[in-house]
């Protein structure tokens, strides 16, 4: 299978599985516990149908929208995900540059393997930073202040990861950061020499945004799960979120909101947006899918705060369904990591090309000239 054979997210997934050592692939691909929520994230879109209109002039379709203070060229952007250099040696530079070409947000994780400053130098496109509240307040403040200096346009605070989810696939495959050889993983690394040589011969694996302030997870052998459990502040509460919003003083999203009650609190503390998300099904298994919660949350706060749907996006029709229920935009994570693993920056650009084409074609077939014409009349639940 080659990159040219990839026509959808599933194809990129299969090529990523072929190219990556087993522990690395399953870290991207897996979820928590029995992975019920992981599967539900995409399946949830199947409980409703799009209702098209016909005999409409759709010779000019406008996909642009405005979210977090930025106009983006189509209503889908790249969610923050950790450690891109573990999947492909081009790392976050590749994904940031791909997003810039398509005029949409790239989101850099605190757990990135490319620094805030390096990403800023590599891409002039709109950039968002994903913040975690650390036990070390100085580290959290440092991240916010560096984003200000580096021209990032927005911050999202991830609020659903005070402890790491139980990702059993990682236990079985021997996944660790930095990647290391174990009896269970040796054969997989040996049979993927291209990945292994790139990892060994190129720049050192580091969590570039935090390594200058803590060695945890960078220069010592500690799993990302251990880093989360030891470094993230379990006392995080609404006051921490409000403090971060005020210190940033710009477009700010809370990522991981799943209830109406929390959505209302986000409005109260001055958040610009909420990202309805369950961390890709990697945290609380058995929780609702983001799409399951979208309508209720939009009905409660959609006129007061921007609502972004994060989770399970695999098709352009998924984006149209979310926008029809009132989401301002959608974001995806696993999908573009498959593409990055499959082909670096070119892979991500190919995926974005296909997703944008799907959205435009599906809008045309819906009889919609603008994303603003997508509303509840365009969708029907079974």
Q: Can you describe this structure?
A:
By secondary structure, the protein is of the alpha/beta class. The mean pLDDT is 92. It has 15 helices and 12 strands. Helix content is 42%, strand content 13%. It has one domain: TIM Barrel (Alpha-Beta Barrel), CATH 3.20.20.70. The strands form 3 sheets. An 8-stranded parallel barrel has the order 4-5-6-7-8-9-10-11, surrounded by 8 helices. A two-stranded antiparallel ribbon has the order 1-12. Helix 1 (9-19) packs antiparallel against helix 15, helix 4 runs parallel beside helix 15 (334-366) and helix 14 packs across helix 15 (334-366). Helix 5 links the parallel strand 5 (106-109) and strand 6.
Short précis:
This protein has 15 helices and twelve strands. By secondary structure, the protein is an alpha/beta fold.
List the topology elements.
Elements: H1 9-19, H2 22-29, H3 36-43, E1 48-50, E2 65-67, E3 70-72, E4 76-81, H4 91-101, E5 106-109, H5 116-122, E6 127-131, H6 137-149, E7 154-158, H7 168-173, H8 186-190, H9 193-201, H10 224-231, H11 238-248, E8 252-257, H12 260-268, E9 273-276, H13 290-301, E10 306-310, H14 316-324, E11 329-332, H15 334-366, E12 379-381
Parallel strand pairs: 4-5, 4-11, 5-6, 6-7, 7-8, 8-9, 9-10, 10-11
Antiparallel strand pairs: 1-12, 2-3
Helix pairs in contact: 1-15, 4-15, 12-13, 14-15
